Amino acid sequence: MDDMGYGDIGRTGSNQFETPNLNRLANQGMQFTWYYCPQAVSSASRAGLLTGCYPNRVGISGALMPWAAIGINSEETTIAEVLKAKGYHTGIIGKWHLGHHKEFLPLQHGFDEYYGIPYSNDMWPVDFDGIPIHLKDTTSINMKYPVLPLIEGNEKVGEVKTLTDQNKLTTDYTEHALKFIENHKNEKFFLYLPHSMVHIPLGVSGKFRYKSKQGMYGDVMMEVDWSIGEIMKALERYGLEKNTLVIFTSDNGPWLNFGNHAGTTGGLREGKGTSWEGGQRIPCIMRWPGVIPGGEICSQLASSLDILPTLATLQVPLFPKIRLTE
Predict the structure, then answer these.
(1) Burial group, residue 163, by CB count within 10 angstroms (0-12, 13-18, 19+)
(2) Percent of the chain beyond pLDDT 90?
(3) pLDDT of residue 87
(4) Helix (H, G, I), strand (E, B) or coil at 246
(5) For residue 155, what are the CA distances in angstroms to 86, 101, 137, 183?
(6) Which residues contact 105 (CB under 8 A, 6 or more apart)?
(7) C-alpha to C-alpha distance for 169 and 179, rounded to whole angstroms
(8) Peptide linkage before 106 cis (omega within 30 of 0)
(9) Phi and psi dihedrals of 210, rounded to 5?
(10) Amino acid 278: pLDDT
(11) CB neighbour class for 39 (10 Å; exposed up to 12, middle 13-18, buried from 19)
């Protein structure tokens, strides 16, 4: 997730919207209560997650802008490259934010498939009220932003131009994720699904608008929860739930500057952009039936930096696939 706070799921504080699928994921798996991102901002955090290295060590700090000339270095090894060498088909659907030039895009760093946006969904020439910046302020830095592109593989296939387009992102990513699972259900696969939400500007489809008690942020959280549920149902449908490790987490804490369009830290100090607990302590749930005990709480220190070395050393048991009917 993007900018989801420690307190944004039911078991750590949220009570203004329902997240039944996240709750079920936690009940069936292990919730980490002392889990930290590598840095409390997007690009750096993702660099740490995908390489297992401190982000500053690999030359990425803060958030890369659309005019940045740098990106993830080709000499760094990503999770996708590690798993691809083990015979996995690898895909990313969603936000990348590790460089938008071709040499930095996912297909050059171990991923077989990519669909999504190259950086944050607020890096576009539109104000938070949906009005193009050039119609309001000819001196604004936002005029430097190009139209937000949708990329498939290495090519631009569309654009995110309006808030209405933002409303479609969660469902769009989910549908692509379901197709990925269907297409690769008979082989080993690694799917990295970095949602654009709940980063501002918030976008939510009509099926969840006005459904929560917490306004639009709650609506967005409910759609994100729906996305998780759809993915879990797909794993069950194809008999993959027992031999699939599912990891749910965020890139950093909530962007508190945006008031009720931001999440909550569950009482932790500060949020995104700071090294206080609210900035770097984030939600994390891992589910793997028969390997990870269900309903457990882990209070040991853990971090996104641990994911790559953990996956690199796993020996995945081969459970028989059970085909389930609708």
Answers:
(1) middle
(2) 87
(3) 95
(4) strand
(5) 27, 11, 31, 21
(6) 96, 99, 114, 118, 151, 154
(7) 15
(8) no
(9) 65, 25
(10) 98
(11) buried
DSSP 8-state assignment for residue 281 = B
Interval 266-303: pLDDT, tens? 999 999 999 999 999 999 999 999 999 999 999 999 99
Helices 215-237 and 20-28, axial angle in degrees (round to 10): 50
Quote the tokens at residue 37: 């991102």
* 324 has a pLDDT exceeding 60: no
Q: Distance of alpha carbon 187 from its chain centroid, rounded? A: 23
| 93: three-class secondary structure by DSSP | strand
DSSP string spanning 117-152? Answer: ESS-TT-SSB-TTS-BGGGT-TT-GGGGPPPEEEEE
Nearest-angstrom CA–CA distance, 203 and 161: 13
pTM of the model: 0.94
Confidence at residue 316, expressed as pLDDT on a 0 to 100 scale: 63
Residues 6+ apart with CB under 8 A from 207: 223, 226
What's the rounded Cα separation, in Å, for the pair 213 and 15?
9
Give the span between the Cα atoms of 175 and 130, in whole angstroms: 25
Q: Is the dihedral of CA 69, 70, 75, 78 positive or negative?
A: negative
Note whether 253 and 278 are within 8 A (CB): yes
Residue predicted with more confidence, 174 or 127: 174
- The residue type found at 72 is I
One-letter identity of residue 114: Y
How confident is the model at residue 9, as a pLDDT?
87
Q: How confident is the model at residue 326 (pLDDT cuts 50, 70, 90)?
A: very low
First-to-last alpha carbon distance for the chain, in angstroms, is 29
